[in-house]
Amino acid sequence: MSSLIVYQNYVHGQYIANGTGETFEVINPATGQVSYLVETATEAVQQAAIVSSKAGFATWSKMTAMERSRILLKAVALLREHNDELAAGEVLDTGKPLQEAIEVDIVTGADSIEFFAGLAPSIEGNQQTVGDDFYYTRREPLGICAGIGAWNYPLQIACWKAAPALACGNVMIFKPSEETPRGAMRLAEIFTEAGIPDGVFNVVQGDGRVGAWLTGNEDIAKVSFTGEVGTGKKVMAAAASSLKEVTMELGGKSPLIIFNDADVENAVSAAMLGNFYTQGEVCTNGTRVFVQKELYPQFIKRLVERTEQNIICGDPMNPETNFGALISKDHQQKVLEYIEIGKKEGATLLTGGKALQPESAPNGFFVAPTIFTDCTDQMTLSKEEIFGPVMSVLTFTDEEEVVERANDTRLGLAAAVFTQDITRAHRVIHQIQAGICWINAYGASPAEMPVGGYKMSGIGRENGSETLKAYTQIKAVYVGMQNLESPF
Ligand code: NAP
Questions:
Q1: How far is CA 415 from CA 146, 313, 349, 441, in A?
Q2: Is residue 112 lining ligand 1, measured as CB closer than 6 Å?
Q3: Pick from 95, 212, 99, 201: which is nearest to 154 by CA?
Q4: 248, 145, 215: which is closest to 460 by C-alpha?
Q5: I want to staple 247 with a disulfide (CB 3.0 to 4.6 A). Which of 50, 224, 242, 328 is the partner?
Q6: Which atom of ligand 1 is nearest to the CA of 387?
Q7: Could you tell me the maximum CA-CA distance found in the chain, to the nearest angstrom?
Q8: Counting Cβ atoms within 10 Å, is residue 347 exposed (0-12), middle (13-18) or buried (19+)?
Q9: pLDDT recorded at residue 3
């Protein structure tokens, strides 16, 4: 008889049984062991979630924005109060280092809710005179929104989607990745504790089939999706059947461009952050590292030195560990296959390139931080999102050339430029086809800054005041001030 904890779906402020007892396993990537079980959202749960969300919307959308804001800020305080415990839960689900989760995952989730809670009362319409008559506009919520999350930043993604949705008076049904279901459940509990009415944030659990149900459901007005490009296409096609609005946060193959005059240590820091943070499982990663030829020898020497000396791979719960386990055995195999393809296609492997079995976590799904050089634009390594700790270094001669090569991809999520030349920095970044850009920085994503992709990396934005528009719709109200003229 299993002694594992079994979580249920969170609907209307409480956990509810799915009626069939059907469950799925959640595995700790650092140990390979099953951590807990979760009940799948059966049709009964799905219907309950819709009924609950309708009731939640009736209550929540009638509150003033100031009232909603106050409650959301209580949730922010609770998230911060429980930071370390929530971060530990994220580590057990994702395999990422605790030192990251403690500093980033919960903090940035809470920041987003705080940001939108602050903005909510400022949402306003306008009024315009038309002769003696006038019209005014109201920004109204959309209704029930669906959130579908990826597994790399589970709680943060749930916060980033819930924050603008709830601040604008919508309700959300959220489906986390079945690999990382815990963060969204904890968020739902915290929302309830903060006083958010039942039905405003429901969590349904399961795999892509539950996601597909959400995207096809006619009671749902919008879907905000984070995941792979291929899944995003399916979600958008399904959303079209009921003419849902969509926000798509998809994958990337982002360029990191380093000019000869760049500060070498900062450029190496960016390349390592942009490839090895969260063991390479970050959508904005700068996996195509373009280095200008004269700087290349110095850059590559320091890059390999620092990678071999400073990465501490092991049990992610150890605060010293700065490099964790990949999400699953399957994903580990996929990343290792890309490494083999890289070797076969003629790239030079400088370091890494294999699975690791650290003493403190011998059964985890680790892949060593891997650096390939002599990469060309045509190689699979330079074209496909690997979503693991695999960096491709390419060299370039001049600015025009590197801009063209950097843009030679159907993806356009992020990009960065390192140079001391201020005009070149802006000139280059303005020509890059990407939605999230950095100059002499990598990875920073404060709640105030809108983030999202160009081209096939996405549609719409998360964070930033822009996003409020994506969670409201305009109602225009014309007011007649005189007798109505009519030919009838
Ligand atoms: P994924 O395989 O596309 O899955 C994303 C979510 O979609 C999961 O919850 C998944 O459920 C669900 N899903 C699968 N099939 C579905 C369907 N037919 N209809 C509706 N939902 C469906 O992506 P992932 O492997 O979890 O995450 C990695 C990807 O996310 C990478 O490409 C990364 O770049 C991207 N990402 C982008 C951003 C951004 O902000 N742009 C941020 C983080 C990650 P199950 O997993 O439970 O099957």
A1: 29, 27, 24, 10
A2: no
A3: 95
A4: 248
A5: 224
A6: 31
A7: 87
A8: buried
A9: 87
Say if CB 194 and CB 216 are below 8 A apart: no
pTM (global) more than 0.85: yes
Out of 96, 108, 159, 177, give the residue to mutate to test ligand 1, the one with the largest number of ligand atoms within 8 Å of its CB.
Answer: 177
CA nearest 96: which of 310, 354, 309, 388?
A: 388
* Annotation says 249 is catalytic: yes
The angle subtended at Cα 148 by Cα 144 and Cα 154, nearest 5°, is 125
Tokens of 171: 């309700």
Q: Which residue has the tokens 């992709």?
A: 453
Could you tell me which of 287, 297, 289, 299 has the C-alpha nearest to residue 262?
Answer: 299
Catalytic residue among 178, 249, 385, 462: 249
Task: Look at phi and psi of residue 10 and say left if phi exceeds 0, alpha if psi is from -120 to 50, else beta.
Answer: beta
How high is the pLDDT of residue 2? 64
Taking the C-alpha atoms of residue 338 and residue 353, their distance in angstroms, rounded to an integer, is 10
Backbone angles phi, psi at 182, to 5 degrees: -75, -45
Tell me the pLDDT tens digit for each residue of 375-425: 999 999 999 999 999 999 999 999 999 999 999 999 999 999 999 999 999
Tell me the pLDDT tens digit for each residue of 13-22: 999 999 999 9
